[in-house]
Design a protein that fits this description.
By secondary structure, the chain is mainly α. Helices cover about 45% and strands about 5% of the residues.
Length: about 70
């Protein structure tokens, strides 16, 4: 079973990796209802909403990384 601390660390690592590309997802965080499940599941990281410019920047960074 994964801990909330592990999930928080993962979200912060993702936030830092995105920041290295000047990308900010303000609502990025751990999906807390995941921990309320009766079945042991892996926690979800909520990426949240973003505007068009952020989505385009994210797409460009992912494509650059895949090249």
């Amino acid at each position: 079973m994964h801990s909330p601390t592990e999930a928080d660390a993962c979200a912060e690592e993702l936030r830092a990796a995105l920041a290295a590309h000047d990308i900010t997802l303000p609502s990025l965080g751990v999906d807390l209802p995941t921990f309320a499940s009766r079945c042991p599941v892996r926690p979800l990281i909520a990426l949240g909403n973003c505007n068009l410019l952020t989505a385009q920047a994210l797409t460009a960074a992912l494509r650059k990384g895949a090249a």
